[in-house]
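Reopening this ticket.

The earlier resolution said the output was attached, but the attachment link was broken on my side. Pasting everything inline this time so it's all in one place.
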Amino acid sequence: MIKVLYLRSSFDPGGTESLLLNLYNYPQKEIQFHYAFLKDGSLISRLNSVTNRYYKLFRRKRIDFQVIKKLARLVRDNNIHIVHTHQLFELFYAVVLKIRYPHVKLFHTIHGYHDVHSRWAEILEQLLIRFTHRTFTVSRSSREELKKKGYPSQRMDVLYNAVKPPVAASKKQLEWFKKKIKYQENDFIIGMIGNFVWWKDQMTLVKAYNLLKEEIPDLKIVFIGRESEFSEKCKKEVNPEDLNNRVFSPGAIENASGYLSLFNLFVMSTLMDTFGIVVIEALMSRIPVLASDIPVMRELSCNAKHFELFESQNPKSLAKKIKNNYCNNDNYKEETYVYVHFNYSYENYLNQLIQLYDCNEHNSPN
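Inline output:
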């Protein structure tokens, strides 16, 4: 059995956290996961495994040498040879740990890009990953973008995220949600899930709605995600009467993907992303998807084979695609269902992880 230590500096609901929670709880006998938490998190209580272990090593300050000592003892006592990180801060602790135990092999997954104002973090990560044996990105397009940013790519592999099929909301929750969006049987509902930030570009969907609202009177738009100044800008583009009856933003909702079954169409108008978990969740729920034609969406769609693409930031292009879907309300392909359930399953993810760990365990130089 391969023993792997995962360092975590956050464990509240989020994409990476959900991935690691499901990975820990997934029944398998090939890898024993040891999770060391440097900070408390609401998802820790949901960890449930007979074979895996977790430890609360909460740091009292940003760089806590007592925590580093405890991590070193954990590595020694459990005969751990692999340490895997998913955030820059964790990687720093892992590199310090490697100085103490040179035999330890470091793996690091890059899930997203650093903010344009955090150039120092990008430089530090580029430096620290030189101590890793392999670095993983969550898509090929992400790897290409990181290369352009100056990341060393010689030992960089693509490891797509695993996605758990959405758990449907309860009947009571669905009824509550239907009231929130004034649901009617003949509605054509377009949904989008994601916090209101400029690069998610909900504005393009708002403008596409304005182009179609007269032509498609049963059209409704539902935005699920945390609101912000950007959401207020989007609302200003919508007629007040429509905000009450046809365009809804109920805010952030727990288990948002559990409401996908109410949508006739899912839109992802993002301007930049490294992956698209919610896109895969929609496809797993047999909901047709329209996404902006950025590189990662081209990649995930297999060049528009599994879902359609529209020209990024072009409301007319999106409106045209929406109208086509409205007129032909049967655009979901059954082969897409099979494709996403196999390629993004936890079983497939673990098999790839085992190969990557095992290969480096036996073949990488110390």
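Reporter confirms the inline version is readable. Confidence is low (pLDDT under 50) at residues 361-366. Residues 187 and 218 are 5 Å apart (CA to CA).
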